[in-house]
Amino acid sequence: MTAHEATTTRLAPHARSLSSAMIRPLLPAIGLGLKLASLDYGTMRWTLERTPPAVTDRLSRERALETARHAARRVPAYRQLLEAQAIDPARIRSLAELPETDKAGYIDRWSLPDRCLDGRLPLRGTTIDESSGSTGTPYNWARGEAERKHVRRMISFFARYTFGDRPLVVLNAFSMGAWATGMTTAIALEGNGLVKATGPQIDKILGTMRQLGTGYRYLIVGYPPFLKLLLDEGEAIRHPWADYDMHALLGGESNSEALREYLLRRFRSVFSGYGATDVEIGLAAETPVSIGLRRLAAARPEIATALFGESGRSPMLFQYNPLLHHVETNDKGELLFTVTRHATLSPKVRYNVHDEGGVIRDDELRRRLAAFDIGLEELVPGEKRMVRMPYLYVFGRKDSTVSVMGANIYPADIEAGIYADAALAEQVLSFRLAIREERPGETRPLIDIQLARGDGSPALTDALAAAIARQLASQNADYQEAMKEYPALLVPVVELHARGTGPFAGDADRIKHRYVAA
Predict the structure, then answer these.
(1) Tens digits of per-residue pLDDT, 170-206?
(2) CB 3.0 to 4.6 Å from 450: which of 76, 169, 250, 429, for a disulfide?
């Protein structure tokens, strides 16, 4: 089943009978209702628990279409984009009739003011977020006051849903400054407890915990590799992690289940969020059921195929609110996002961040699991009532790979191999995937590994190479097939580097790790 097929399910009769002509006049009232519901956690949760998936799916698509019409009326850049393709937004009946937008085809072609409502960049109530530049030159993104408040509220609701109602001491380890994730998260979680924005400073985090003591619930928020480093550095100085009630919220990049298990040695729960500075942070989030599903799919390949297709890859799995964001896939299996709130200063319509993945509606997912005699409630037996939000699975960007003899190798494969053995994982700070040409026309996968301490040994090199090879051979379908024909060329080469040396010498100022060599 393709990613596109995963998004298309039959509408329930009560949703199917409503025509666009009937729904469109109701959209302003629906929008007002959603705005009011979003002000209260209980009301929003009640809505998402009880609204049939077919209804929210239909409303999501209609709101996305209305967002496109709104952008065509009020955003000069989007209006010109449609005019250049002779598209009349008033006649549009399907999102597929509208062009995709992305950095190259939309952001780079028009100025920031032209991409804003009414062609103006307000000088009051507006902030500029900067993307991290992990794919090149950083970009600036304008956010209006209303949308910032909304995003913060939704992040706060997510934290309440996953970590409960009891107050938290939030230590925000994201980088601060112009980076969207750090500032937004710090302000958003003020509603969930006391917040200290430490940034990625291990001494500050440990010092704060020592001063406040063990009588609090701590939520440490940051990039996955940093939280792993925090635990390792704390272990090295005998910080009493076991005395603290700690939880982790990850963001900024993907994480494997092996890394989650590593973190769960000290954290009581670990959840991750998904977002893109281009569009919005907080687009989707892991929930107890999405984590249970991901683990089930990892353990049973036939279920992974039924849910995610024949890729042989293990995606991240989230849930998202279809009343606030509409998500679809194109023919390449790339995700397209539309933010369906008219208060957005710089609207995004069918915006492509070039992440591969797909969407599965709640009722469709239940139907697929039923074929294996599995009920969704079995995965989270303590959950009284689950929100019926759709599931978003994300593989990541296709260019975040290396290809050897037709086998695509992904950073997630390497991470899972390393973190499968805690004794190995605690010695690793980061890694980078590359290709080594042994002889003209003969290449092998190369994994450069930056060590947390020391400069390694032949025994450690061999152990890491064996762990990575086992993971690739057991989980990567491309690799399994290529090994049958080119076994000698598929054996990974592992090279160890002392901290801050070799290919990692220039990484001190990077916010995110670079997992594939440039």
Answers:
(1) 999 987 654 556 777 878 888 899 999 998 899 999 9
(2) 429
Phi and psi for 285 in degrees, rounded to 5?
-150, 150
Segments in 197-256 forming alpha helices (H): 202-212, 224-236
Cα angle: 285, vertex 386, 55; to 5 degrees: 85
Pairing of strands 217-222, 168-172: parallel
CA distances from 169 to 243, 413, 426 (A): 15, 34, 26
Report how far residue 95's alpha carbon sits from residue 350's, in angstroms, rounded to the nearest whole number.
8
| Fold match, 125-285 / 402-504 | no
C-alpha angle 110-113-119 in degrees, rounded to nearest 5: 100
- Enter the pTM of the model: 0.84
Q: What is the dihedral of CA 400, 429, 438, 313, to 10 degrees?
A: -40
Q: Which of 172, 214, 224, 222 is nearest to 193 (CA)?
A: 172
Which residues are CB-contacts of 142 (< 8 A; sequence separation ≥ 6)? 112, 116, 121, 126, 127, 128, 345, 346
Beta strands 325-329 and 334-339: pairing type? antiparallel
Contact criterion met (CB below 8 Å) for 431 and 414:
yes
